[in-house]
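A quick aside before the break. I want you to see a complete sequence-to-structure record at least once, exactly as it would be stored in a machine-readable document. Don't worry about memorizing anything.
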Amino acid sequence: MTTQPRGLAATLISLINQTNADGQPHAATLPRGLIVQVHQQPRKFVLRCWRIGQLAGENEWHVLFDYLPVACKPATRPEPSLVNEDGRQIYSASWQLPERLL
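That is the input. The structure line, written in tokens, reads:
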């Protein structure tokens, strides 16, 4: 019997499945207001997070990364950049997908 992912892991898997289906970025708002966005392109994976009206913590991005499926992670954890986009402060990082996914 296999255990189905729950909570954050299930949300991330759902977003990954959506972006794989249509090639577009997909986002979800988590229960405490953190917005997470994933975008899987043919050779690149993008993970971003932000909050409305306040700065998300870099540690929140690291927690999201930890909950990604292993198949989507690079060999070493990237450090996110803080970018300003449309007045939002967004933690964002992208990396090449492992060869096994290409």
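Two observations worth writing down. The beta strands are 26-29, 35-40, 44-50, 81-85, 88-96. The longest strand covers residues 88-96. We'll return to this after the break.
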